[in-house]
Amino acid sequence: MKLALHGGTPVRTKPFPAYVTVGKEEKEAACRVIDSGILSRYLGACHEQFMGGTEVQALEREWAEHYGTKHAIAVNSATSGLICALGAAGIGPGDEVIVGPWSMSISATAPLFYGAIPVFADVEPDCFCLDADDVERKITPRTKAIIVVDLFGQPHDATRIGELAKKHGILVIEDAAQAPGATLHGKPAGALGDIGIFSLNYHKHIHCGEGGVIVTNDDALAQRLCLIRNHAEAVVEGLGVTNLTNMLGYNFRMTELDAAVARCQLPKLAALNKKRLLNVAYLEKGLHHLPGLTMPKVRHGAKHVYYVHACLFNEQQAGMQASKVLAAIKAELPHFALREKEGTKLGVGYARPLYLLPIFQNKQAIGHNGWPFSLAPQHSYTQGLCPNCETLHHGDILTHEFMLPSMEKEDLDDVVNAFEKVWGLRNEL
After folding, report:
1. How many other C-beta atoms lie within 10 A of the C-beta of residue 98?
2. Tens of pLDDT along 176-224?
3. 91, 112 in Cβ contact below 8 A?
């Protein structure tokens, strides 16, 4: 037997089954909207249609009921939701917002839209969410909010971070884009902070192509979120709003088509997550014996929903470099159908630490003069800022998507066989 990387026969060449969550229900819902002739029903004015059409408002009611929150506000993306949340929180120039280094870029750049300064805290070495101890070290009198990310589907340490936020009078904004259906001590991810944001982007657990939903239990924050979503400046006078902080609105509105599809997706979430968890358990049973590979830790009291399956990797114990493991396994396994250009869904690390992006390295975001970074020249974004994140990203973690609900046991067996083949022939690497 020879590794495919060295000319041997791959374990599998047939593409893995596509992860498709849309079907007859979504088609019927889309047709219903098209037949109505109303693809959107927002007006950016003080009018009964300021809150959108029937599908959008129905999605908001159903989402709030599902998550047990008082308010749900539909938007056109989780990115928009994070910008809305920072604005609703009253964040302004020179304020500091603690953010994480490991996520989609907007989780760290959202404060910049309001002239605030992102302050990076490190991640936990085992659960990979924001480290509460480092968060505490980064809090200053200028800190106004913390953006936490339920990374990889794992709820953040809401107990510790919530206590810190309460002690210092700051808001917690929860990016739950990767964790719909996750819970901590029975409480849903997304509802663990003051404002939570979900994603309905095409590669999330459920989706409507592009979209997002914001949840909160705070009436005042909910009103401000709705205003920022839809041209706040045009309606504050008519609605009698006197606090004009950040009342410069956007068009972050969700269409009726997106909302109708999302309404069909939400009832599917529990079954999809159940299959995801079953697949994780099957894979972990098959992989746990491989030296140097440690299955992901689940926080005490948490239900993890595995946006990706992130395994710790120890090169010394495994007897091979992470980069060589990656190349060898990728040569043994195919891509997912419909995602041909993405290659085999296995990687070393995750997103590069966000403070290493040019926007932070050059301290230039708005305009030509380094604003808003010029408001806080004491903050540096040098390499080494978040050592746990950097160590994990540069080889101490393998992430993959082989646990997707579309995968059946025979597909998972091929994954396990590929890992075992590479470990068994690791002397060739």
Report:
1. 29
2. 999 999 999 999 999 999 999 999 999 999 999 999 999 999 999 999 9
3. no
